[in-house]
C-alpha cells in the first residue's frame, strides 16, 4: 500500500544529512526522505522478472496476503502456516541467509508504487510500469507503459507515481537500492505509450492543469543532497522546462505537496525549526504563487485545504506544540489564523488526512497510538485509542471519501489493516488468521527516571513464557535526534530474536519526537546530554526491574543514533556487552566544522555551530563519540558502513574505528595478561546509499555477531526464523 504524504511532518526528514535519521518505509531514516514522502506502496502478489528476482530485499512491510474482510471485533492476529525444512549440513547462519534469499512468493508480497486515477491502477509489474483497470488490478491483464530496463540501471524500482489530471501523461520516479540518485520519467499515454522526457535527481513532483487544459508538471531538483530548486515543465507541442523558484538560504530545503482536494500546490520551504509555504493555484498554475506567511524563526506550519478554507497545522503560540488552526483561503496571513483544535501535552502528530466533512489526526500520546476524527460540520471530536500492541502507523492510499484506511504495525508484528467508516462512526479491523505472536509475546510500556527527574518512555517486547528474564539477552534500540521517532516498523529479524528469547527495548529518549516538539527541543543543541542521561537511565531501569544484566545487554543504533550510542560506550561501557552500529554519526565536532560537506549548514539547528560559537564547540566536545575515546574497557562493536555514503562519509567512520582500536589495545597492554580484548569490526558495504536496510548479508552478519559475543547457541535463532517465515 502507499505510504502517502505524512502531511508535512515527514518533510522534516527531507534533508536528513550525513548524520542522518531513519524513517518508516518507512525506509524512513536514511535515505532520501522525498523517497519516503512520496512512496506509493502497493502490496501485490505476482511473478517477478529478472531484475526483481535478484533484488536482495525483505520488505519491512512484508505481510501475509489475507482476504480483505473487516469486522468491528477485537484484534484478531494472523495464523501461522506450514513449515518447510532446510539442509541440515549447512551452517545455521548460512541457512538463514539462504532462506531470506529464497523466500517463497506465496508467503510475502513485494512493495511497489501504486496510484489509482480515472478508473485505472498504475503500478510496477516486474521491470515495467503498467496500468490495469481498477477492477482487474489483481489479474494478469495489464498494459505495459514503460520498461525500466531501458534506463540501464542496476535493479531499478519505481519509488513514486503521479498521473496527470486528464490522464494524458504519467510520471514515475525510478531509483535503485544502493543509490540515492533518482530519475523521473514522463510517459505519454496513447495506443503506443512512449517516454516523453526524463529528468535526473528529482525529489518531489506533482501535476496540475492550467486554464487551457494543459498538464503542467512541477518538480524539485536535488543537488549534493540539497533540494533548493523548483522547476515547471510542459510537454507535447508546447514543450518547456523552466526553473520556477530557487531557495537562497542553504539551511532550508524545498518540497512540493498537492492538497488532498488538488486545489492548491504548496511549495514548502523548511529547515528543522522554521517553515514558509507558498500556494500555487491548481487552476491557474501560471499565476504568481501566494505567500501564506513569511518565515518566522521557530514557527513551523503545514497547510491543507477544504471548501475555500486553509487548515494549518502549526506550533505558533503557547504551548509550542502542534495545534490545528484555520483561515479563509483568501486571507492566509498568520493574524487571521483561528484556533480550531489543540493537542494534549506529550502528543506527537504523526499525520493528518483531510476529507470532505472530516479531518483525521493520527497521534501518539504518552507512547500510545490514537486516531482523532474531527467532524468539520459540527466541530465534534471522536478519539479512538488503538490496540496497545501497535507502535506505528502506515498510511494508506485513499481515494474513497467515505472511508479512512490505515495500517498498524510493531517491530515484531506485520502490518494489520484498519478502516474508519465515517457513515457508521466506527473503526473496522481486518479479520483473518491469528498471528501467534499475539499469544507468545508481551509488549510493555515502561518509564525510566532520568538524572533530572524526567520520565523517559520505553517499549519492551519479550516472550510471554520467558522465565527468569534477568538471564535473557537484551537488545536496546536508541535514536534521539531531529525530533524523529525511533523506528518501530516491522522487522523480520526482530521477531526472530523475540521468538528466540531475547528482550527488545526501545528507549524513546529526548531529542526524538515521541512526546512532541518540546521532547525534541530538550535533546538538541546544548541539551544533547539529556538524551545520553535518558539512555543510561533506561538501561539501568531495565536491569533494575529484572530485564537482563550488563553481560547480556547489547545496543543497536543507526545514523544519528550513533551519537548517543557512541557516547554511552565512552561514559558507561560497563552497561553493555556488545553493540551494532549502522552508518553511524560518530564525529560531530569535525563534521559540523566542515561547511564543505553538503548538509552541514542544514544541521546547525540540531547540533549547533562549533565554528562560530565557542559554547557550542565546548558542549559538543563533552559528548562527541570520536573526541571522547580513551584507553578503557569497551564493549565489542560491529560497525556497518557504506562505501559511498554521502550523508555519513566513510572517512569519519574509519577514523573512529582506528582510534577506538588504538585505545582498546593501549588498555589491553595496561591491564596485562588475561584481559579479553573486545572485538571491533568494521564491515564496509558497497554502494552509495545511506543504508541498504534489507540486505540479507548485513542482517545475518549483525545477528551472528550478537550471538557470538554473548556466547549463545545460534541453532535456536535459525529455528525461530524458519517459524517466522512460515506464518
TrEMBL record:
Family: Belongs to the peptidase S9A family.
Residue span(s) of domain Peptidase S9 prolyl oligopeptidase catalytic: 490-704
Protein name: Prolyl endopeptidase
Function field: Serine peptidase whose precise substrate specificity remains unclear. Does not cleave peptides after a arginine or lysine residue. Regulates trans-Golgi network morphology and sorting by regulating the membrane binding of the AP-1 complex. May play a role in the regulation of synaptic vesicle exocytosis.
Highest rank taxon of the organism: Eukaryota
SUPFAM superfamilies in the cross-refs: alpha/beta-Hydrolases (SSF53474), Peptidase/esterase 'gauge' domain (SSF50993)
Cited InterPro entries: AB_hydrolase_fold, Pept_S9A_N, Peptidase_S9_cat, Peptidase_S9A, Serine_Peptidase_S9A
Keywords of the record: Hydrolase, Protease, Serine protease
UniProt source species: Galeopterus variegatus (Malayan flying lemur)
Domain Peptidase S9A N-terminal: 107-426
Keyword Protease: yes
Top enzyme category: hydrolase
EC number(s) from the headed UniProt entry: 3.4.21.-
